[in-house]
Amino acid sequence: MEKDTILNVGFDDTDSPKGMCTTFLAYKIVDLLQKQKTEFLDFPRLIRFNPNIPWKTRGNGAVSMKIKTKNPLKIKNQIKNLVSKYSDTKNGANPGLVFFESNSIPSEFTKFSKLALWQLINRNNAKKFAKKNNLEIYFQGNGQGLIGAIGAIGYDFHDHTLELLSYRKKSKFGKERKISTDSVRNMQEKTSPHTFNSFDTKKGRVLITPHGPDPVFYGVRGENVDSLIHATKILKTTEKLDGYMIFKSNQGTGDHLKNDLTFENMKPYASGKIQGIVSISPKIVKGGHVLFKITSNNHDFWCAVYKPTGMTIHASNLLKGDKIIVGGGVRKASKNYPRIINLEFLEILSPVKNISISNPECKKCNKKMKSKGLNQGFQCIHCGEREFKKTSHEIPRKIKKQLYLPKISAHRHLSRPLQRIGMKNKSSQFNESLSWFCVYRK
Ligand code: ATP
Questions:
Q1: Which of 115, 165, 198, 275 makes the best surface tag, with the fewest CB within 10 Å?
Q2: CB-ligand 1 contact for 56 (6 Å cutoff)
Q3: Does the C-beta of 254 come closer than 6 Å to ligand 1?
Q4: 418 occurs within a structural domain
């Protein structure tokens, strides 16, 4: 009897802004392997990495899967062929494919993956990593995709979400997606909080359909398989879809912002969080964006809150001295500013008291007194009453000790939505009998 091999497969960077999608390639691979009765040991994994790296196509997503097979050689060849067939290399994709035979994943993989979540990794380091760890790798172009491919295999879940991605038939690629807005609203009402970020109720906007030429029709995010399947039954479209697949993902976990940014590690494109004290109060700049500065460990950091995040109103109410935590991505220095943190969240830890000091009021006339000159006190111009001290009073703050998040239309794939704050989903046990994959009959 031939023995079983456990094979981890990771791939990335197969798409371009002009077409294809790494998750669709995963769907095609699963379709082929399922027909051969290959055993899957977990959901396919859709791992999002640092959303601030400059060369991502959309959401910096990579895919990995874990299977059991008696014929790893045949499967590897089949996957290689599919990666070549479905990679949009002529439009700039730099696909990377990694095979790793083992049931357990060594800690070096996890370390690599953790770093890719918040820092920028040089692609030569991915090649060195592959050599050092004896990985079987394939790449085209510059091999940038190896970073996501290794990272997706190495990712260690502490919390997760699921996403059901439904795919279009080839004849529909690039055409407008028609879905009933009411059905999406209804689906959110019926399935939330077991699904999230499907519909922006404030703007009446559907958030589950992408807008590019890729093969995805919609993606519903949620916490468990049953809720996602239920959601698809509520959604209404006249388009005949090809099928769907459910991925286990780190989307919605805020994973990229959990590391502390410091003066030393705050390289361009890094993501993370930092605690500090507001040292220059906010100013509103052209376009309605808000800029302010914080001090942390004797270093100053510029922070920017962009108008579309919907957080500018809160940021503009910050005062010098407020103790806050900001999370976001580091923008490269420009001509006018040094490195700036683009905020993805703002948490107020302790707001200072806003004390206003002004000339005293005349107790008889209820009118402000006039200063009589330096050190000479104040006098009421109506009755001549005198007073020597200024008065102070507290102005209520417009911000509270709380977490402020962008509005959902400005969320990134990794952003943790309000309804998931403090939550850790560990419940999605994989079982082959689950309806995690389906190709609709022709
Ligand atoms: P998707 O369309 O699936 O949302 P994407 O298309 O936006 O994802 P890719 O086309 O996969 O993203 O491009 C991202 C590229 O960046 C990949 O080659 C990936 O390997 C690489 N990459 C991922 N994380 C890092 C990182 N931290 N540092 C450097 N390169 C990275």
A1: 275
A2: yes
A3: no
A4: no
